[in-house]
Every structure is written in structure tokens, then in C-alpha cells.
Amino acid sequence: MINVPRNGVLSAPILQVIGLIGWAFIVYLVYDALIDAVTRAGFISQSLSGELHPQVAAHPFNARYVEMPMLTLAHVIPGFLFMILGPVQFISSMRKRFPRLHRVSGYVYLLSAALVALGASYIGFVLPIWGWTLNQWVSLLSSILMLYFLYRAFGYIRVRNIKLHREFMIRGFAVGLSISTLRLFLDWGQLAGMDFTLAWNVATVSSMPVTLVAAEMWIRLTRPVNRGHR
After folding, report:
1. Model pTM?
2. Of the candidates 174, 226, 167, 218, which has an alpha carbon nearest to the alpha carbon of residue 17?
3. Could you tell me if residue 129 is inside a domain?
4. How many domains would you assign to the chain?
5. What number of other Cβ atoms are within 10 A of residue 118's Cβ?
6. Is 116 exposed, middle or buried (0-12, 13-18, 19+ CB in 10 A)?
7. Could you tell me if residue 230 is inside a domain?
8. pLDDT, tens digit, for every residue of 74-92?
9. pLDDT average, residue stretch 1-15
10. What is the pLDDT of residues 49-68, one digit of tens each?
């Protein structure tokens, strides 16, 4: 079973079940993001080598990336590292057994997150936007929030405040993970009968709030009780 802090709101077995369900979703969302990153990298590689089918390259959604392939790769590669290293930061057994590895991977994770956030903001305003203009500002807000949360997490670990470091790390990762939630909501929207553009718009504006709310609920459920204020 997974190790979760206890604060008395729910019993340990219930928290364990919620934690396992949460991890199952995280594994699925990370897997989806990694598959997309590999696919996108292959797509850009084909574009650079001239092997990409012209009809595929001309699709409005794909054309955004064909226009600036190196910028896309500069975003995809840190994104791959972010998704690989993010969940590792929350595995308590690895933190305890390999503290040095945890610190080094944490630095790489934070650097990757910064590159992802800056790249997403830049891409959102340089490449042609898909769907609502509002989507640009949603992307920018997500990037700012992720940078802010991870900056706070870094500051708290510097002063050895493990509790708040954990909370802000969860928030930061949740914002980054919302890109996978977007794809999940996009699929659901199309299954519900929406056309691609409408499903994309709805998924874009709803994915980050939903993922962040879920993270905040987990933080509150597992926030240790301050025994001095009982």
C-alpha cells in the first residue's frame, strides 16, 4: 500500500484507496503525455526530413508545429522529463533510500518545469492559436501558476519546511499534468458528440481547474494535524 499522511479526516484504509485510485489516474495521464511527446517528436522529425505527408502537415492543428519545429522540440523534450520525474518526487520509499538522487532529480525536474512553462507561454502567443483566443490566456495562466507553485516549493525545501514543500510540489505537478487531462476531456467531449474545435475549447478551459481542485482536495485530506492546536 502507499504511504499517506494522516490527519484524522478520513480513516487510513479510505485514504489508501483514494490514494491508489489517484495514482492509477496519474499513471494513465503520464503515460498518455509520454506517448504524445514521443509521437510529436517523431512528427517533427518527419517534418524536418521531408518525410511528413503534405496532407498531414497542412492540417491546421499540425501546421502550428510544422511552422516552428525546433521550438516544438524544445518544448516537448523538457515536457518528457517533467512527466517522467514528476511522479518520482512523490515516491516516499525512493526519497528515503536515495536522498541524493531525489535532490538531483528534483533540480532536473524544476528546470524542466520552468522550460515547459516558458515554452508553453511563448508557443501560445507565437504559433497560431487553436480555438478561442481565451485559450492563449488560459495557457499563460497555467504557466504562471506552475512556475509560482514550484518556486514556492523550492523556497520551502531550502528552509526545510517539508510539509509546505510537499503541498506546493503537488500543486505544481497538478498544473503541469492538466495537459493530459485536457486530452482526456477532449476525447470525452468528442464522444459526447462535440466537434473537435468545441471539445478542444471546453477541455482547454476546464482541465487545469479540475486537476488543481483534485490536488487541493488530496492536500487537505492528507495535511497532518497540528497537535499543538487541538
Report:
1. 0.86
2. 218
3. yes
4. 1
5. 15
6. buried
7. no
8. 888 999 999 999 999 998 8
9. 65
10. 877 777 776 676 677 777 77
